[in-house]
Amino acid sequence: MTSADRRSGAVVVAVDVGGTTIKSGVAGSDGVHRVRRTPTGRERGPDAVVEEILGTVDHLIADTTNAGDDVVGIAVAVPGIVDDDRGVAVYSETLDWHDVALASLLADRCGVPTRLTHDVRAGGHAEVLAGAAIGATDALFIPIGTGIAAAVIAGGMMIAGPSAQAGEIGQLLVPTPPTGRRADDPAEQTLEVVASSYAIGERYHRAGGDRIDLAEVLTRAIAGEALAAAV
């Protein structure tokens, strides 16, 4: 479906900020359109990531307005510890963020209501509403990406915890796996260092395999490759 095929209407600009990629699009009654994927650019520093998000939203709003649709809101999901009520990214190890008031930055800049939430909690809500957890009152959602966190649904409620840290399992210390381990690796490392998408591909490479990503390691493990299965 092209923009010309769509009827004009109220839409929301949606942005999912990951450690590697910013995924964005425009969501309306007829689905999600104008999907974009751009590098997060975290290697350029935390302020650069904020500017990348602002630029992404500016682009989508301009494109959407030119197509005749009305942007009525902005929704942003980010990793780390997020205070949904205040719209503040309190802390992110992945993005090196500390108390970034992203919701107010976007609302002031764009002039439309903006909501900020945790990326994995947003994913957990999506699974309950339209995915694998439809009808479940208790569920655990754990995506494996640049970082690792969990969304905890108990008794039909999303559990954030008093300081919005529920599900932040990525910084837990776990034993360093023997496969792909270096001599100078500590006995324990954080779960993200051991089991993120990058870490799994890196351990496969350290153990003698070629340089591939998590998806390919999984494909090879399912196909019965011993090295991939060990990793």
Could you explain how this protein is built, in words?
There is one protein chain. This protein has 231 residues and is an alpha+beta fold. It is built from 7 helices and 13 strands. It has helices at residues 46-66, 102-110, 119-130, 191-195, 197-206, 214-222, 226-230; strands at 10-17, 21-28, 31-39, 70-78, 81-83, 88-92, 97-100, 114-118, 139-141, 151-154, 157-159, 173-175, 188-190. The strands form 4 sheets. It has a 5-stranded mixed beta sheet. The protein starts with 9 loop residues before the first strand and ends with a helix.
Strand order of the largest sheet: 3-2-1-4-8
The main pleated sheet reads as:
5 strands, mixed
What distance lies between the first and last C-alpha atoms, to the nearest angstrom? 41 Å
Oligomer classification: single chain
Give the C-alpha Rg.
19 Å
Portion of residues in beta strands equals 25-35%
| SS class | alpha+beta
Q: Give the helix tally.
A: 7
Task: State the order of secondary-structure elements, H for helix, E for strand.
Answer: EEEHEEEEHEHEEEEEHHHH
Give the mean pLDDT. 91
Helix content: 25-40%
Unreliable parts: 1-7
Please tell me what the overall shape is.
globular
E-strand count: 13
Which labels suit this protein?
alpha+beta; 29% strand; 231 residues
Short description:
This protein is an alpha+beta fold. The chain has helices at residues 46-66, 102-110, 119-130, 191-195, 197-206, 214-222, 226-230; strands at residues 10-17, 21-28, 31-39, 70-78, 81-83, 88-92, 97-100, 114-118, 139-141, 151-154, 157-159, 173-175, 188-190.
What secondary-structure arrangement, pairings included, does this model have?
Layout lengths: L9 E8 L3 E8 L2 E9 L6 H21 L3 E9 L2 E3 L4 E5 L4 E4 L1 H9 L3 E5 H12 L8 E3 L9 E4 L2 E3 L13 E3 L12 E3 H5 L1 H10 L7 H9 L3 H5 L1
Parallel strand pairs: 1-4, 4-8
Antiparallel strand pairs: 1-2, 2-3, 5-6, 6-7, 9-10, 10-11, 12-13
